[in-house]
Amino acid sequence: MAHFTVDNLGQVNDFLATTNYLNGDLPGADDVRIFNGLKGVPPKDQFPEVYFWFLLLNSFTPAVRAQWGPVAAPKEAPKKEAPKAEAPKAEAPKAEAPKAEAPKKDGDDVDLFGDDDVDPEAEKKAKELAEKKKQEALAKKNKPKPVAKTIVIFEVKIYEATDQQLLEATAKKIKETINPDGLVWGKEVKYEEIAYGAKKIVMSMIIEDDKILTDDVFDQITAWEDDVSSVDIVSMQKV
């Protein structure tokens, strides 16, 4: 993975064009590091992907962002030496105890972005874009693979090859009788002359490779041995 810095925002911008966060599908340490290193909202015209990524991260609270990456342990305060004992003095009038300060909430004294204005519409758009990228990636991952198909052109020869009516009846019988799942018959049937008035039937079919074998179809045709003399492939082409 590339090493991202605030000095190479062009590289960061190119990377964010294909993913939601610098750490992949979920935000992580790289996102927090670059986000905290920016001085303000990045220019939208120069780095559009970084701009929307920035708005998306800015919509989370500092406390949530702190959970995405390692946080340095707080330094221990230096120990103070105990004051030396002094001789007792005359009791002075009691002063009022100082009022305890209300605990500060997360982010009260942290202003990472100064006075930079964040457009609510742009922030909303950033979230929509992130969601769109997520859905596109999911759809691409789950997209079904195309079904492999083959166009097969074949010829059928019958014994009574000069009988046009029998030729047509045989072609019709093939289409009406053999219809397994995964096979679609071509509409056109040709009757090409062989010699001396004899003709052969030329047909086509589209088969799904995972469901149909040509031999299964041809075996059913040649099973009509009283009429059919042979079946041969003319051509095969992948769809």
TrEMBL record:
Residues 108-120 have a biased composition (Acidic residues). Residues 149-239 form the Translation elongation factor EF1B beta/delta subunit guanine nucleotide exchange domain. Residues 76-107, 121-130 have a biased composition (Basic and acidic residues). InterPro entries: EF1B_bsu/dsu, EF1B_bsu/dsu_GNE, Transl_elong_EF1B_B/D_CS. Residues 73-130 are annotated as: Disordered. GO terms for molecular function: guanyl-nucleotide exchange factor activity; translation elongation factor activity. GO terms for cellular component: cytosol; eukaryotic translation elongation factor 1 complex. It holds the Pfam family EF1_GNE. It comes from the Eukaryota. CDD domains: EF1B. PANTHER family: EF-HAND AND COILED-COIL DOMAIN-CONTAINING FAMILY MEMBER (PTHR11595), ELONGATION FACTOR 1-BETA (PTHR11595:SF21). This is Translation elongation factor EF1B beta/delta subunit guanine nucleotide exchange domain-containing protein. It comes from Paramecium sonneborni.
